[in-house]
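Subgroup meeting minutes
Present: P.N., E.W., G.H.
Scribe: E.W.

1. P.N. recapped why we're keeping a running log of single-chain structure predictions: easier to compare across weeks, and new members can see raw inputs and outputs side by side.
2. G.H. added today's entry (366 aa).
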Amino acid sequence: MHALALLHRWIGAIGGLLLAVLGLTGALLVWRDELTFVAHAGDPVRADPAALAKVVGQLSNASRPIDRITFAGDGLGVHQVLFRDGGGAYLSQAGETVARWSTSWQRPELWLFDLHHRLLIGDTGETITGVAGLVGLFFVVTGVLLWWRTRRRFRLRLWPATMKSGAIVHQHRDLGVVAAPLLIVSLVTGVLMVFPTLGGSLLAEARPRPLKLEGYHAAPAARELAPLFEAAAAIFPGAEFRRLQWPRNAGAPIVLRLRQPFEWTPNGRTFVYADPATLAILGRADPAEGSTVASIREKLYPIHAAKAGGVLWKLAMSVSGVALALLGSLAVYAFWQTRWKIRSAKRSKLKDRSQAAAQNIAPIRR
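Output recorded in log:
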């Protein structure tokens, strides 16, 4: 048990701050829509295909190439437009531009998401966050085991009684064991999104390949997309329009993403693929026809990001994030505070010995 405690402390001292960053950013991102401060953010959603097609048509005539549009939905009443040059804009449902940016650093909700998901360094950062999640699970399991020895002294505190290492350790253990169930849920779902193979052969099931148009050469997207929206509404009646993705490469279709009532993912997993030149429907992907495995994987993100379960689950995931931030940051502080005190004590003892030795040396007389 001593070796386990030593391993727990040293790994925590090194990786605790990273987990604290992930916990704090995760707690904030739970309320991302509420923290997106733009005009018309609270407008009720008008699910009108003709109105959406009109807004898209206006954007298609703009000089800046568009990457995708995420339509207004529950929680955020404005459309989000991302351009190919890295900039973006928020539009009201009437098509009025209410905010624009040339880089994601100008919008806190965007760079916070990138920090939480990829640590601002792309795919490498995503892998690092997945590893950090595994380390966090190790802390939860070993922390509960180490807490069991001191369970009779349990006293829940949000903050240590003092900032001395002993008080921090007691607060750390007691808070950790209380938050353990929520931490396990948030960490497991996060890890499985990054490393689905860890869920076994079922969760690692290969994803469907993107539809490819053989022999197709890129052509300008049609300006009037109302027929596409109408066709998609006929295929999936009652589905909510969530995102429109412009072709990124030659031979790629326009992708219209929808969300059916039974789906948990906020942007849905329902897809309609169309020819960019003619808007002819080329294919579709219907989660209702998918496997049980696909249904399970679809729920990982909504659970992790509290996009399902209402306000109570948002609060629960917020508590999980704040707890992780406190556990990680205070663990690092307590560990290195103790190490600094030990080193200071050793230096002070050596200094005292040197002074004592100097005083005991008798002066040399000639």
